[in-house]
Amino acid sequence: MRHTSWRHVLVVAMVVLVFAFGGCLTLDPSITTETSDSSVFDGLSATEPWTGSGVRVNATLRSTGDAGNVTQITVIKANGQSFQTIPVDPGQTTVILTVPANQNSSIVASNTVNSTTIETVNVTARGNKVL
């Protein structure tokens, strides 16, 4: 048992070192956005204490008609390029997505059945970038 925990510690230390020396380790990531007027998003929050190039985000969807019509969420980087696309199932209330670390992006909720954009929310991801 003790041997296994040392292996675990060694693997975690190696991963942290790879991220740190690769210049892409961010500690204490946070998400800033305004969802109080949103008809789709109830809240967005970072899910992990550290990250690489992207911040994992827990997106909670509201119980509204607009949120019920969302079939896809797309994260768009500040330069207009797509960063991630996630399908949304009917009735789904939580979506885990990733936004680019230490930059602004947009989260676009859309309905792929009728090709409409339901809502766009601007997001800023920040954290303490190491190296």
How does this model look, in words?
This protein is an alpha+beta fold and 131 residues long. It is 18% helix and 51% strand. The strands form two sheets. It has a six-stranded antiparallel sheet with strand order 3-1-9-8-5-6. The protein has a three-stranded antiparallel sheet with strand order 2-4-7, with no helix packed on it. It is elongated. The mean pLDDT is 85.
Protein traits:
alpha+beta, 18% helix, 131 residues, single chain
Approximate shape? elongated
The neighbouring-strand order within the major sheet is 3-1-9-8-5-6
Beta-strand fraction estimate: over 45%
Question: How many β strands by DSSP?
Answer: 9
User: What is the helix fraction of residues, given as a range?
Assistant: 10-25%
Largest sheet: 6 strands, antiparallel
Q: Provide the succession of SSEs.
A: HEEEEHEEEEE
Structural class: alpha+beta
Short note summarizing the structure:
With 131 residues, this protein is an alpha+beta fold. The protein has helices at 2-21, 65-68; strands at 25-32, 41-46, 50-51, 54-61, 72-77, 82-87, 94-100, 103-111, 116-130.
